[in-house]
Design brief:
The protein is an all-beta fold and 94 residues long. The protein is built from no helices and six strands.
Length: 94
């Protein structure tokens, strides 16, 4: 009997913050925070959308950046104003 076990899993993942017509790649996301890949200056209270695409399945959250961002610190905190209709996968809760 032959058994095949998948030892590794690699998902196609895209993570970005969109504000107006600007798309900014993110490197990390957690509960109520995210980390920009590049330095940006964004004012406090700015509204945006965080997109997470995993293996072609898109999830999006409408957010407000609490304190904005400054060029010397890529981590920012946000409040979610609207999330995906599907709640089976929520990276903010894992």
């Amino acid at each position: 009997m032959t058994t095949s076990i998948q030892k590794e899993f690699s998902a196609d993942l895209a993570l970005r913050l969109v504000i107006g017509d600007r798309e900014m790649p993110l490197t990390k996301i957690g509960p109520s925070y995210a980390v920009l890949r590049d330095e940006e200056e964004i004012p406090a209270g700015t509204r945006g959308i965080i997109f997470l695409v995993v293996d072609g399945r898109e999830h999006r959250w409408d957010v407000i950046l609490r304190h904005g961002t400054v060029p010397f610190d890529r981590k920012f905190f946000f409040d979610t104003t609207k999330g995906p209709a599907r709640t089976l996968f929520n990276p903010f809760l894992s």
